Amino acid sequence: MKYSRTIGAVEKDDWADRHVARWRDHWIDVAFDDDIEAITVRISRIMKHLRTTKQEAVNAVGLQDFEYDTLHELMIRDTPGQASPSALAEDLGMSNAGLTGRLDSLEKAGWIQRRADPDDRRRVHVETTTAGTKIWREAMALRGHYEDDLLAGLNPTERKTLAGLLKRLTLALEDDGQ
User: Which of 32, 45, 138, 148 is placed for a possible disulfide with 61 were both Cys, Cβ 3.0 to 4.6 Å?
Assistant: First the structure.
């Protein structure tokens, strides 16, 4: 099956179409499914675009990647903007010791603060400050514009269908423990 986008009355190949055409005949001794290859190549291209536009948004507001990632993990919690350092380290996939340097940097910039737990003063909670929430929201607004632009070519029904198909794939990953 040839994947292409119809623009007016003209079919236009995308990067994945050209990739599949180049590689199809190179895999005589290995199973090569045009559909699977085209899907995975397109997902990869979309992920590259999302990483690039995330970087543009982060740079535009004056954050470094690690600062944005840490603020993002703080903000997307059940209690937005609050976490224990150990929970935050786990969600970021890093050691508690590694997180300490990040938190020091964010605290120095005025984007987070550490507070003693009122019930157990030996425990600390990390909270975003008003400035931290503001700069994270600025980056998120830019990312949102990039994401809206990416999906602007799909109508609401197509977006819902795509969301459902992608959900089936992510549920399969979750069922596999990933």
Answer: 138
